[in-house]
Design goal:
Helices cover about 35% and strands about 20% of the residues. The chain has eight helices and nine strands. The protein has a single domain, classed as 3-Layer(aba) Sandwich (Rossmann fold). The chain has about 180 residues and is an alpha/beta fold.
Length: about 180
């Protein structure tokens, strides 16, 4: 991964050694009232269709499928870095094309999803993808569907740390 991308995803231009050390760092457990409400909404009573927009988390997949839910996973952040979605802009520079990106991303029928784990993904996506993403999620969610989103209290930008979230209980997660 290029140093500038490491900076984007880890909060600083980390060396491979620092990135390796960060992987081994202890996770922080925190309580989340939003996750508590999300958990109540999906409950184990009847199977739900859930979309997880973050990087794949075996912990989340096992927990949710263990409750009988069907889980889809799309890592929109990594997908947005794919060169297939670059087009030449008016100034001749390559730029991300939301039209091209969404030909392959978030392709769901209307009302196909019961719930979405958006985490803090919108804070890190290129601005041109945020509104189309929200529109697609709105159409894909069933009426009464739920979305869990975390947002930074300050502008995320390249210095904000990027986290993977792992659900450990109905209202707790590790980051």
């Amino acid at each position: 991964m290029a140093p500038d991308l490491l900076k984007f995803f880890r909060g600083s231009a980390a060396s491979p050694q620092a990135a390796s050390a960060a992987k081994g760092a202890a996770r922080t457990q925190r309580s989340s009232s939003g996750l508590k409400e999300f958990s109540k909404s999906i409950g184990p009573e009847s199977p739900k269709v859930i979309l997880d927009l973050g990087p794949t988390s075996p912990t989340n997949l096992m927990r949710l499928t263990g409750m009988g839910h069907k889980v889809y996973n799309e890592d929109l952040l990594m997908g947005s870095l794919d060169s297939r979605y670059q087009v030449k802009g008016a100034d001749g520079r390559l730029e991300l094309s939301p039209t091209e990106f969404f030909k392959d991303s978030l392709v769901f029928e209307e009302g196909a999803l019961d719930a979405v784990l958006a985490w803090d993904v919108p804070d890190y996506l290129p601005e041109s993808l945020v509104k189309p993403m929200v529109d697609r999620l709105h159409r894909a969610l069933k009426p009464g569907g739920v979305l869990l989103g975390f947002f930074h209290t300050r502008e995320a930008g390249p210095e904000a740390p990027y986290h993977r979230y792992h659900i450990t209980g109905s209202e707790t997660l590790n980051i």
